[in-house]
Amino acid sequence: MINSNKAIFFDRDGVINDNTLYYTYKIADVVFNDGIFDAMKIFQDNGYLIFVVTNQSGIAKGVYTHNDVLAVHQFMSAEFKKKSITITNYYYCPHHPEKSKCLCRKPDSLLLEKAIARYKVDKNNAHFIGDMETDMIAANRAGVKGHLIESNSNIVELARKICQHEVGVL
Ligand SMILES: [Mg+2]
Ligand SMILES: [Zn+2]
To answer: pTM here?
Structure first.
């Protein structure tokens, strides 16, 4: 079957929410970055599926638990839902290289590849927005277009440009 879905992958900390705190694992600490709701809406209105792909090594380090991460993601989805935005799925790596080796921690691309396979994503119409070089490496390895942003910046303009195909057409 032909992969036909357009997709936007978002890194979480530093893209969706402010990452000034090193770890965000309490709902009360979630501060959405300016413009993120508008940016997501632009992508959704242009037919993109929306995914979150995030490293959460605090789990491996024992700082917080899977349930903490799931609670934050449920909270985020509920907030986006208020603006009629649907996050199709969240993918996170709970590992840390000092604790256990894995293939899912960015800059590896397994999480992206899982989403691409499961949701039949057309890699020629897939973008990864991240605030770290490791996000860009993961994007390259998965064969999608990476967009490096400044941490916690407003990405509305980038969303418009991607949707107008001014940037990132492979
Ligand atoms: Mg980040
Ligand atoms: Zn992992």
So the answer is: 0.95
Rounded to the nearest 5°, which phi and psi values hold at 19?
-110, 25
- Report d(CA 134, CA 143) in Å as an integer: 14
**Cis peptide bond prior to 107, omega within 30° of 0:** yes
Scored b (16 or more CB within 10 A) or e, 84-123 reads ebebbebbbbbbbeeeeeeebbbebbbbbbbbbeebebee
Active site includes 11? yes
What is the Å distance from ligand 1's center to 20 Cα? 10
Q: Please say if the pLDDT value at position 8 is more than 90.
A: yes
* 5-163: in CATH 3.40.50.1000: yes
Residue ranges covered by each domain of the chain? 5-163
Using a CB cutoff of 5 Å, list residues around ligand 1, an ion.
11, 13-14, 131
Active site residue 108: no
